[in-house]
Write a structure and sequence with these properties.
It is a single chain. This protein has 425 residues and is α/β, with parallel strands linked by helices. The radius of gyration is 21 Å and the shape is globular. The model has no long low-confidence stretch (mean pLDDT 95).
Length: 425
């Protein structure tokens, strides 16, 4: 039996065989000093686009109307020729960045499937990157204008290739999860939602999509005469197995619709605020009984995969719309809130029996001096802070701010080289 004991001025956290353990630490436990630190569950990024780590925002893609932004991003994908090599390099960078920022689980909504590229190989590139760096991955087989039957078949093929031992879409070791998700009603019609809904039901997979982004509202009104959430309700995509990201400027009627459906939602302020799409009403959603998680979205709209920074931003802009959400609430949203949206009750908390995914945050330096409460200061103080140590499933993946599972600088160099070679073609 392998055991670790994290000890300091507060309660000792005991890890045994990859789980949070109840009771005293064994005499032979590896003891880690956490004096002056705060220990939290590993953060859970409920909405990322890992491929966009290779396409971080550039001056010509910032502050654009969403239609123009999507067009320029699509052209960049074509110019750089998205394939398994580029997909793996981008995913490895995004996942390594996540671990170094305290994120132990990432839901990757992959939307780019170029003609001629094997979907199983593209998905496998991201799965391989996650295995390589030691992060938990929820891979969402997304769509954006693809052919419905082919997309549904690829879900079954990906499941057979990488999750043959899965139960309810989660691999036996808990490290890989599969879900399905159209980009939104602006890109896919009822046929795609029906096809992916059917294969999800057959394989026991969760469903995820996006709604109330700028173009989503515009296209839904122009094409169908309804707002996105009305359409999702009609197409049977508001239900307990569905998570909807963004939900910018949700109306009272829409809020009641979501709350009554049992669907969960994901807030993504680090994308929505700079893109000018609006702010999700987190406090009102939670008051209505809706489970809320937190995501960064991708590098094309949010240059960083730093979920704690986005929790801080979400907390700050909640005051702007007159529906404030506290630091402790946002920490809960970024951990257990996101985990419950993924139907992963073993993640996002440190109660006995939980998976030992945790972060050690050093709060002993000048950046936190004067903070009245360490947990409150975790978000309010030290913008952009990174954890000292990170553990996933009882295994240290970051120690003293350094990634242990791979050379992060080498991953960065690999992506830069790949992009430079393609730019020169």
């Amino acid at each position: 039996m392998s055991a670790t004991a994290l000890t300091g001025a507060g309660p000792t956290v005991v890890v045994s065989d990859g789980r949070i353990s109840e009771g005293p630490a064994p005499a032979d436990a590896d003891v880690v000093d956490i004096s002056g630190c705060v220990v939290t569950p590993g953060l859970v990024n409920a909405h990322h686009h890992l491929l966009q780590s290779a396409f971080r925002s550039r001056p010509d893609t910032r502050f654009l109307p969403m239609g123009d932004w999507l067009s320029r991003m699509a052209q960049r994908y074509r110019d750089m020729r998205v394939d398994p090599e580029l997909t793996e390099a981008a995913a490895a960078v995004g996942l390594a960045e996540s671990l170094l920022s305290g994120v132990t689980t990432v839901a990757d909504h992959h939307l780019t499937w170029p003609p001629g590229e094997d979907p199983v190989a593209l998905a496998g590139a991201t799965v391989g990157a996650a295995r390589r760096v030691g992060a938990r991955l929820a891979f969402v087989r997304g769509t954006a204008g693809n052919e419905p039957d082919a997309a549904a078949q690829s879900v079954a093929d990906i499941h057979a290739a990488y999750l043959s031992d899965a139960r309810n879409g989660v691999s036996a070791d808990g490290m890989i999860q599969l879900a399905v998700g159209p980009a939104g009603v602006h890109s896919d019609g009822p046929e795609m939602f029906a096809a992916l809904g059917q294969v999800a039901a057959q394989l026991g997979l969760l469903r995820r999509t996006q709604a109330n982004e700028q173009i989503d509202v515009q296209v839904a009104l122009d094409r169908y005469g309804r707002r996105p959430l009305e359409l999702l309700h009609e197409w049977e995509w508001l239900a307990e197995d569905v998570t909807v990201a963004h939900l910018c400027e949700i109306t009272d009627v829409e809020l009641d619709l979501v709350a009554g459906s049992g669907a969960t939602v994901t807030h993504a302020p680090g994308c929505d605020v700079p893109m000018g799409w609006g702010v999700a009403r987190v406090a009102a959603l939670r008051a209505a009984g809706v489970q809320v998680g937190l995501g960064t979205s991708g590098g094309g709209s949010n240059d960083a995969g730093h979920l704690l920074a986005d929790a801080r931003l979400g907390m700050q802009v909640s005051g702007l719309i007159g529906e404030p959400v506290s630091a402790q609430e946002f920490l809960d949203i970024a951990t257990e809130g996101s985990a419950l949206g993924l139907r992963r009750p073993e993640l996002g908390h440190l109660r006995p029996g939980a998976a030992a995914d945790l972060c050690v945050w050093d709060c002993s330096d000048v950046f936190d001096a004067g903070a009245a409460d360490a947990l409150d200061g975790l978000l309010w103080a030290a913008p952009g802070r990174r954890p000292r140590d990170v553990m996933v499933g009882g295994r240290w993946v970051v120690r003293a701010g350094t990634l242990l599972t791979a050379d992060s600088r080498q991953l960065a160099a690999q992506l830069r080289t790949t992009l430079k070679q393609r730019e020169g073609r």
